Every structure is written in structure tokens, then in C-alpha cells.
Amino acid sequence: MKRQWYISETLVGLALFDQAVPQCEKECMVSNLGKPAKKKALKRLEKKNTGPFQGKRLWDFVTSRTTVMLEALDLDSSLLSTPVQSWEENDAYKVGKQRVSNLAVVNDHAERAIALIKEFNNDRRAAAVPAEGSAWE
Fold first, then answer.
1. Alpha-carbon dihedral angle through residues 75, 87, 95, 67, given to the nearest 10 degrees
2. Looking at the whole model, is its pTM more than 0.90?
3. What residue ranges do the domains of the chain occupy?
4. Which top-level group of life is the source organism from (predicted)?
5. 82 vs 86: CA distance, rounded Å
6. What is the DSSP letter of 130?
């Protein structure tokens, strides 16, 4: 529940390349690509705009705006007109899967950067404290 705000009309398309998502769910996602986009594109889903998440499936968040993700990754959209069962052998799917797996998760990088900065600052503080019996005393 904590990270549900990451679900958006655009980002939900990344699930098409996730092996953990069943084929039947991907088929429903593809069929919902014709669903009109919401009038106001949300940067992130807000609970007040979605109702309860309980009982929702990935395809409930898919709209025509989901194709923006495919375009941003420069993926061949012809994949969407092929049966989901054949995707694993499809070159466009393989390229897409590779590109999606290479995406950097910004939050992970930010957290690592903060940890490195803290470590750096702690090392500097430790180096600045004079050792016992040093000339600073």
C-alpha cells in the first residue's frame, strides 16, 4: 500500500514486460489501451482519484496514455498487435524487456547518493577530530 502512488497511466505499461504478470492480465492491459485517457494526467495516482485499490487489477489503470511509455522507450508498438503468448519469442518484446530492465529507479539512486554523502561527511568529521596526544591539544 505504501508505494501505490507509483502506479500511473503511463508507468503501468512497464508491467507488460514483467514475467510476474500473467499473460491473461497482459491481454486485458493491451485491450484497455483503447480506453480514453483521463482528462487530467496525474503525475501519480492519489487515493481520492482512484477509490479503493482493493479489487483493482493492473489493467484498471491502463488507458491510451499508457502508450506514451512505449514511445519514450522507442519500442516497436507493433508488438501490441501480436498475441501475448508469442511475446517471449518476439524481437520487439525482447528489446523492450531489456530496455525496461535497464531503467534506473531514481529513488534507489537518490537513497544511495544520500547514504554516500552521509558516509563522506562522517569520514570528514572523523578526520577533522584531532587524535589524543596530537599537536592540536
1. 20
2. no
3. 4-103
4. Eukaryota
5. 7
6. P
CA 72 to mean position of chain CA atoms: 13
- Dump pLDDT digits (tens) for 9-51: 888 899 999 999 999 999 999 999 999 887 766 555 555 555 5
Distance CA 34, CA 20 (A): 24
* Cα(94)–Cα(98) distance, integer angstroms: 6
Do the Cβ atoms of 27 and 84 come closer than 8 Å? yes
> What is the greatest pairwise CA distance in the chain?
77
Torsion sign, CA atoms 40, 43, 46, 52: positive
